[in-house]
Amino acid sequence: MAGVSTATVSHILNNSRPVLPKTRQRVLRAIERLNYRPSAIARSLTTNITRSVAVMVADLTNPFFAAIVRGIEDRIEPHGYNLIVCNTDEQAAREARYLEMLLTRRVDGLIIAPTGETQPLLGEFAHHQIPLVFIDRKPPESYGPVIAVDNFSIGRKATEYLIRLGHQRIAILARKPMLSTVLGRLGGYRQALANHHLPIDDSLICITEHDLDAVAVSARRLLASPNRPSAIIATNQIMTVGVLQAMQEQKLKYPDDISLVCFDDNPWVALFDPPLTAVRQPITQLCDVAIDTLQQAMKRKSEKVSPTPDLFLQAELIERASCKSI
Cβ distance 122 to 141 under 8 Å? Predict the structure, then answer.
């Protein structure tokens, strides 16, 4: 329609070579009349750049991971990248299917909160020089830098806060400890007790499946014990809801009957009466550092440079009214 070669059209679309103004106008008019759009797939075959990155999280219904996705989207979109969002629902098989799809699509990079299972496909990303950044969680094998919270430190800090209030029987609810986040929080809890010469009572360490019914059963059993703990640390949102449900059923109130510290500081925890003491994770900073790390890796992916080191950020304990001195 424009009366020019495909090479000329390519030069105009990609600004790769000067073209006479009259010729450029003729091509642009033809593009408009035909409603033509360049094929991103075809272009990526030539440039090996798709202008797309992916973020893979464990549970989009969890406000923490929803905020992670939003933060990454806000940072990456101004740079002209399309974002592919994958939700694994904590399932290793689903995680593997998404990894296979992303390899096929040849995304330019991936930010992933892994399920904790070994995934050989992650090695394929390194083979194809597709940068990986792990956010929030550390995978079983190292395939890229980890940007996460220092969970050991905040687990210890939350426990020591309760110890300073006079609590000695402190329970902790957590999911099965195959995730680095859980291992860190449990490790910090144990270290705080040891630092203050308090016994580590295995009956106060409740390891449960990651669903509300299972958490509620564990919390009921804990609260019904003749030697009930005076304080509980709930290590994620589901643990918090399960504890609150069990307390309601048994007509118990915080902080009068039991003190409660929860992870994470979602907007609703401050609206409770009394408001909940909570661990606030630096989500904005996590996303900023993850995007910066990924962009640097994408720029130099063909260069032989030293790998970016892991970075662990500090979380904050927000003291409210759900804990009391005894």
Answer: yes
Report the distance separating Cα 269 and Cα 255, nearest Å: 14
In angstroms, rounded to a whole number, what is the distance separating the alpha carbons of residues 112 and 201?
35
Residue 110 has what pLDDT? 97
Mean pLDDT for 22-50 is 75
> How far apart, in whole angstroms, are the C-alpha atoms of residue 89 and residue 56?
10
Q: What pTM was computed for the model?
A: 0.85
Give 231's contacts (C-beta < 8 A, 6+ positions apart): 162, 165, 167, 169, 170, 171, 258, 259, 260, 261, 323
Burial readout 147-162 (b: 16 or more C-beta within 10 A, e: otherwise): bbbbbbbbbbbbbbbb
Looking at 3.40.50.970, 3.40.50.1460, 3.40.50.2300, 3.30.530.20, the CATH number of the domain 50-149+283-316 comes to: 3.40.50.2300
For 151-280, CATH number out of 3.90.1170.20, 3.40.50.2300, 3.30.10.20, 3.40.50.880 equals 3.40.50.2300
The CA-to-CA distance between both ends of the chain, in Å, stands at 84
